[in-house]
Amino acid sequence: MPHPEPQYQLPRDFTGFGAASHDCKWPNGARIAVSFVLNYEEGGERSVWEGDPHSEPYLWEKGSSGGYKEGARYLNAEQDFEYGSRVGVWRLMRIFEEFGWKITIYAIARAMELNKEFGEYCVKKVGHEIANHGLRWLEFWDYDIKKDFQYVKDSCNMLQKVTGEFPVGVYFGRGTPNTHGALPQIYKEMHKEQGTPKLLYSSECYNDDVPYWVDLPYEKDLPDEQKEGLLLVPYNYDCNDGKFHMAPGFMSSAGQTYEQYLKSSFDCLYREEGKMMNIPLHSRITGKAGRSEALRNFCKYIAEKEGVWVTTRRDIAKHYRETFPYKPGSKTGGR
């Protein structure tokens, strides 16, 4: 059991920006920033071939009825994941190429290693962002602090090795009680040791529709001018295509309910103005033909609207840092 280190525990916040909300002042007067995120995990999931005790039970086509096999291969699950890397990912890439949009790839390092053509396509051909989603698609909640730090460093380095890009953003969705609060410090250590970039943003939060700053407990005794804080770019579960395989989820494997929910979410955030919208994807889920068509319909819908900024999380973070630079004690920062 990991020990929660006090200096890495981020406080809970139940008030946020209150009734006034927060306008992120997106570039060129855009009303909304839209972030498509592909969780690329295929090949990084649990498998006895990778030394795991059982097959992957989570987020594949048979859903909760699929189960898993102890100490044995489960070809049904394996091949559903393989569909994502062989077929689904390229179907999704064709959609984003059609609209000329850049997206963020939450990349599992092992998955990218097994499909180097995809990594080369993302970084060298198209310019999608590579963000850190972990070494493999596994829990690591029980790591001690030393192993925790090393895991983050190893996953960053492996992603740089196999894709050519060092990830400046992080979303594990898993981790220890210390991982999230320690990320800026881990990145600073790597910066000193290797000359790699510092952390630009973390998406290890689900509690808002806009980016915001948090103070870091381990910086509390530093002079204000030496504090760097942590920029959080929130993520979500409600628009996540993983809900096709979760209960109650989208209540059907068909894409139509999903498409309508995405449109409703967009309409609300577009009307409120100054917000961001997350659309989390998986190539083995939305990469299936019927669901990809629903996604394409949504893309057509927002492409026809004025003032929509479809971009990477890296560029969202850069804009926010420039427009609302960190100021200790302030969620929005300020000059």
TrEMBL record:
Coiled coil: none annotated. Residues 81-176 form the NodB homology domain. GO terms for biological process: carbohydrate metabolic process. It comes from the Eukaryota. One of its GO terms (molecular function) is hydrolase activity, acting on carbon-nitrogen (but not peptide) bonds. This is NodB homology domain-containing protein. The lineage of its organism: Eukaryota, Fungi, Dikarya, Ascomycota, Pezizomycotina.
